[in-house]
Write a structure and sequence with these properties.
Blueprint lengths: L2 E2 L2 E2 L6 E2 L2 E2 L9 H5 L1 H28 L2
Antiparallel strand pairs: 1-4, 2-3
Length: about 60
């Protein structure tokens, strides 16, 4: 009988709760298996980092006399 197990994806490190018949030794989530999800996540992190950098530069410029 399948159960829900808390596992960590060995590729992206995110927690997942798959519905499986037995507890897996290692697990790769569907997003990592497809390859598309990993690329989108990485692109999102890159955009967020650039946005944060721009925001801190604008704040520093506004605070300068």
């Amino acid at each position: 009988m399948p159960q829900t197990y808390q596992v960590t994806c060995s590729q992206c490190g995110e927690l997942r709760w798959p519905y499986l018949p037995e507890s897996p030794e290692s697990y790769v989530c569907v997003r990592c298996r497809s390859g598309v999800g990993a690329a989108k996540r990485e692109a999102g992190r890159k955009v967020a980092k650039a946005r944060k950098s721009r925001r801190s530069q604008l704040q520093a410029a506004a605070e300068a006399p």
